[in-house]
Amino acid sequence: MTNTEPNTLNTDTFHTGFVAIIGRPNVGKSTLMNALIGQKVSITSKKAQTTRHRINGVLTQDNTQYIFVDTPGFQTKHGGALNRVLNRNVSQALGEVDAVVWVIEAMKFTSQDEAVLKILPESTPVILVVNKVDELERKNDLLPFVQKVAAKFNFKEIIPVSAKKGIQTQVLLEQIKPLLPENPPFFDEDDITDRPTRFLATEIVREKIFRLSGDEVPYGCTVTIELFEEEGNLYRIAAAIIVEREAHKGMIIGKDGERLKRISSEARQDMEKLFGCKVFLEVWVKVRSGWGDSEASLRSLGYE
Ligand SMILES: Nc1nc2c(ncn2[C@@H]2O[C@H](COP(=O)(O)OP(=O)(O)OP(=O)(O)O)[C@@H](O)[C@H]2O)c(=O)[nH]1
Questions:
Q1: Domain named KH type-2: which ranges (predicted)?
Q2: ipTM surpasses cut 0.95
Q3: What value does the mean pLDDT take over residues 121-128?
Q4: Distance 122 CA to ligand 1 centre (A)
């Protein structure tokens, strides 16, 4: 294929892909993400276990777009069958991204790290990041530590970094780059705050539905943003919760509309915290019978 138009973005050679940053608590995942993106990115409630992936940040550099996601729901604390099932789901979700970055701390390998090791995907390349190298007292200790961990899995690359000091973070990006598939950019370069903001808004509403509806949450329920306007320091957002059946509507609305009110009010508070501005949020419930089967409906909801 030839590109006859000079000076236009040649999307043939553009690479865009999803990168999951995982690791036990406190290893420095958020710090690393912020160092890679080069700006502070707020993250929605850590309680959310409602999606397989949540977009944390997007970086567009040269001809590459990195979409960093995390995979909520990973459990290292307790054993048990439920956690095994949850973690199996996490493992499957990790199989769906293009690259996994597993963060550990230099000189510290705990039982929680062992638990993460067990869910590393076989089919997705995994880069091991050994973080906090700035804290090393004796640099010579690092190599034997890294060799020990390296023997545990077939890592694509192993990169010692300091997320805090920004040491080797560009090297990490260079190593991720060839792992991302040829794709046009999914986000506009200067759109990092806008479309993901809309997306995050739907995720926040979804999280509230899941959290406040418990086991009753209707199968196939989804959220779309019907209006998203910025007016100075105010976001005017209208979100529709779409359910498959009339009977499902009641589950979301609750007795005397109480549940929908709470969904709406808690979602608004989270949005204000996350977006750092006032939010005027309207939420309603719509029935779209059989939407899950209809291609046009799926497209209108942003699924291709
Ligand atoms: N010295 C040093 N400290 C770091 C580095 N990266 C992160 N930290 C510190 O480690 C602590 C945890 O960092 P976070 O980025 O919150 O870790 P996390 O993995 O996102 O933690 P969770 O949100 O609990 O999963 C913070 O106090 C960071 O400042 C590093 O490269 N060097």
A1: 205-289
A2: yes
A3: 93
A4: 27
